[in-house]
UniProtKB/TrEMBL annotation:
SUPFAM superfamilies: Cytochrome P450. It comes from Senna tora. This is Taxadiene 5-alpha hydroxylase-like. Pfam families: p450. It is a single-pass membrane protein. Belongs to the cytochrome P450 family. The lineage of its organism: Eukaryota, Viridiplantae, Streptophyta, Embryophyta, Tracheophyta.
Length: 452
């Protein structure tokens, strides 16, 4: 072990090594020098508390691990995660600082280094300032509700195709979906190494698709609105508007990021909704009633429309409550762009700030009886204090795909509850690796349902 660590340290660039060895940055002002660092320990070099956090996530005890830190150190403490000195903060006020200061010059986005390695350095989560605004504007213009209306029929067709292939005519189905939160060491046989190999394969596929779509757009006059790749390529060629242009590298990296978020996040949400509906009969009955009313108004084989999705208010509240209790993203990071004073402590420039969504989601002062599943909490979303429900993030970096996730989830749930009955053939335990994953998968005993 000693030889391994010595060899590893020799391979690390000197500036990073100094950071990992916890040589404290010097503040530019005497005032900052007088402000103490938060309590806590940075742990051993490189690893810090990374392995302890990852172990607790996989054991589904991460919330308890965080609560133990809070009891020991209070609402703000220092530690080291994924190779970087870190400050953990929690609560509504902390969330407001984290989400409300993006673009304000004090904080920048700081995903784990492993995520940057997997998705590519030009994906939106890695960009800041004008680059972030430019790329976000391009993606949001495609993902806004007004644009997504034209894709409801395509979503409907894809969901029905999936159900026909994997659900209909079967008695059992098994539904379920690693390296994102990893110590950023690309060693053979590690989850990060496997993820990087898959990332390289995906980038090659997207580049081939990019070339095909470019030919269709330039030679065949394809509609820019037929899909995301074509849309972004069309903006790439708007030479008269530099603000809208995206490089081909940015298109590749952001398409992969959207594929990752659009597939995994929605898969997790649907997985836990299916589990919930199998164990909460009153919730299931209300969802079924809402969806059957919509189905009765459709002709045989007629796809769902935008107007149908607007009617699915209770079903979406069920989805939001599922996201509150089991958020797909456990937490995230921001990077300090300058020295910050918070709660009487100094967070030095270059450190990262760690936030955890469950700390406000499961706070009884914000959500009474937080362990109880209660979709009525979201009947009036304006009554929920700001920066408390953060499954989609918040502020200038709030997830641009909220509406896409909403419509895809609603379409899927509609066909599942109107076409099938199911019984869960596993327990309710799950792990976080890196997203919530049922320990036994999601085996279901299913039978066809006849519309009443």
């Amino acid at each position: 072990m000693t030889i391994f660590l010595t060899t590893l340290l020799l391979l690390i660039p000197l500036p990073l090594l100094l950071l990992l060895l916890r040589i404290s940055p010097t503040s530019s002002t005497s005032k900052s020098n007088r402000i103490p660092l938060p309590p806590g320990s940075l742990g051993i070099p490189i690893l810090g508390q990374s392995l302890a956090l990852l172990r607790s996530m996989r054991a589904n005890t991460a919330e308890k691990w965080i609560e133990d830190r809070i009891r020991k150190y209070g609402p703000i403490s220092k530690l080291s995660l994924f190779g970087r000195p870190t400050v953990f903060v929690y609560g509504q006020a902390a969330n407001k600082v984290i989400f409300g200061n993006d673009g304000g010059g004090a904080l920048g986005h700081q995903p784990p280094q492993s995520l940057k390695m997997i998705l590519g350095e030009r994906n939106m989560s890695e960009l800041s300032g004008s680059d972030h605004k430019r790329v976000r504007k391009a993606l949001v213009s495609f993902l806004k509700p007004e644009s997504l209306k034209r894709y409801v029929g395509k979503m409907d067709a894809e969901v029905r195709k999936h159900i026909e292939m994997h659900w209909e005519g079967k008695e059992k189905v098994s539904v379920m979906i690693k390296g994102v939160w990893s110590v950023p060491l690309n060693l053979p046989f590690t989850p990060l190494n496997r993820s990087l190999r898959e990332s390289a394969r995906m980038q090659s596929m997207v580049k081939e698709l990019l070339l095909k779509k470019k030919i269709e757009l330039e030679q065949n006059g394809a509609s820019p609105h037929q899909d995301l790749v074509t849309y972004l390529l069309s903006m790439h060629h708007l030479k008269d508007d530099e603000e809208k242009m995206m490089t081909e590298e940015e298109i590749v990296h952001n398409v992969i990021a959207i594929m990752f978020a659009g597939h995994d996040n929605i898969s997790v949400l649907l997985t836990f909704i299916i589990r919930l509906l199998a164990t909460e009969p009153s919730v299931y009955a209300s969802v079924l009633q809402e969806q059957e009313e919509i189905a009765k108004g459709k002709h045989a084989g007629e796809p769902l429309s935008w107007e149908d999705l607007v009617k699915m208010k209770y079903t979406w509240r069920v989805a939001l409550e599922t996201l509150r209790i089991v958020p797909p993203i456990f937490g995230g990071f921001r990077k300090t762009l300058k020295d910050i004073e918070y709660e009487g402590y100094l967070i030095p420039k270059g450190w990262q700030i760690f936030w955890v969504s469950a700390m406000t989601h499961m706070d009884s002062s914000i959500f009474p009886e937080p362990s109880k599943f209660d979709p009525s909490r979201f009947e009036n979303q304006a009554s929920i204090p700001p920066y408390c429900f953060v499954s989609f993030g918040g502020g200038p970096r709030i997830c641009p795909g909220i509406e896409f996730a909403k419509y895809e989830t609603l379409v899927a749930i509609h066909y599942l509850v109107t076409k099938f009955n199911w019984k869960l053939c596993a327990d309710n335990t799950f792990t976080r690796d890196f997203m919530p994953t049922p320990n036994q998968g999601l085996p279901l005993q299913i039978s066809p349902r006849v519309l009443s």
